[in-house]
Recover the amino acids of this structure.
């Protein structure tokens, strides 16, 4: 698996590219990306697809919990850290 910072960087890059208006220096691993409307709830499905490609495994959307997309650190913890992927 990729190192933690490389994965977090890929997630930040996706967020910046998807938003199109926010600059990379405006996003860190604790920035609340949904709360600040950096990505919309409609873009969550695109984010899930991106995370599936990045992690090379499917995500069971029925098992998702509140807050898993709060920020880059939450996304990393829930989808990349540990054998179960946090789901």
């Amino acid at each position: 698996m990729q190192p933690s910072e490389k994965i977090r960087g890929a997630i930040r890059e996706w967020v910046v590219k998807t938003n199109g208006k926010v600059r990379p220096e405006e996003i860190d691993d604790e920035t609340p990306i949904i709360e600040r409307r950096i990505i919309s709830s409609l873009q969550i499905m695109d984010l899930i697809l991106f995370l599936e490609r990045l992690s090379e495994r499917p995500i069971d959307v029925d098992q998702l919990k509140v807050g898993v997309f709060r920020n880059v650190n939450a996304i990393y913890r829930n989808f990349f850290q540990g054998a179960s992927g946090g789901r």
Summary: The first helix runs from residue 4 to 19. DSSP finds three helices and no strands in the chain. The domain at 4-79 is CATH 1.10.1200.10 (Non-ribosomal Peptide Synthetase Peptidyl Carrier Protein; Chain A). The mean pLDDT is 91.
